[in-house]
Fold this protein.
Amino acid sequence: MERGISLTQKLSTGATPPSVTQLHEVRLISKLQAAPTRNLPHIRQRQNLRPRPVSPPPYPNTMSIIQQHTSATLSDAWRTINIDAYNEDSSVNFDTSTLHPPQPEIGEAEVRQLSGQVRQLLRGGDAEGALRGCLETPVYNGTDGAKDAHLQTIIEVLQSIKASEMNPLLRGIYESPGGGECLDVLMKYIYKGMAMGQPKPASRVTPQSTGGFGARAGASNEPAAAAMSVLLSWHEKLVEVAGLGCIGRTMTDWRRV
C-alpha cells in the first residue's frame, strides 16, 4: 500500500514519467481501496467465524406442541392393546366351548366290551355289521388307552375283510342312513393308524446253521408293513366311494379320535 501511495504522489507531481507496469499497479490499488470489504477473502473468513444471532421462531409454542404430540403418539403402548376385545364377533367376547357340543366319555371297559361284540360279528360272518359297529361309536372323549384299543379293533376288522369285499361293503355303508358320517370316521382312523403305526412285536426266533438260535432280520417290521398296506388299500377304496370330500371333512373336523 505504501508503494502505491508513493507512486501516486510521484505521478501527481510529475517528477518521473510512469511506466505501463506502474500504471497497472496504481489502477489495481485504487480498485482495492474502492471495493467493499466482502470481496476480500480474509475479511470474508473473519465474518463467517463470528456467531450469528439466532432469531426466535415466528410461533414460540410450535416446537413444544410438536414434542408433546411426538411423545404421546410414538410410544410402544399400542403394542399392548388387544384389538380383538373391541370386535363383537371375536372369540374373546364369548366362550368358544359352547360352539362344540359335549362328547360322551368312553372308557376302556366300554371299548373292551365293544371289541368282544365286534369279534362275535366277525366270527358270524357279518363283516359289515362289525365295521359299522366300530364306526358308529368313535372314541372322541376318552383316555389314550381307550382310543388306542379302539384303533386296534378297527384295524383288526379291516384286516379280516378280503380285498374283493371292500368296495361292496363301503358302498353298502355309504348308501345307508348315516353312512357318510361313518366313512368320515373310518378315514380318521385310517390316518391315525398311518401316523401311529403298529407296536413292534417280539422278534421271531429261527434256528441257525451253527445250531444256535437268532432273530430273523426284518421280522419285527413285517406286521407294521402289512397293517400299513391294508390301510393304504382301504384309503384308496374309501376315496373311490366317498370322494375327496371325505379327506377334507376329516382334516377340518375339530373332533379327534
Summary: The mean pLDDT is 76. Strands lie at 205-207, 213-215. The chain is about 55% helix and 0% strand.
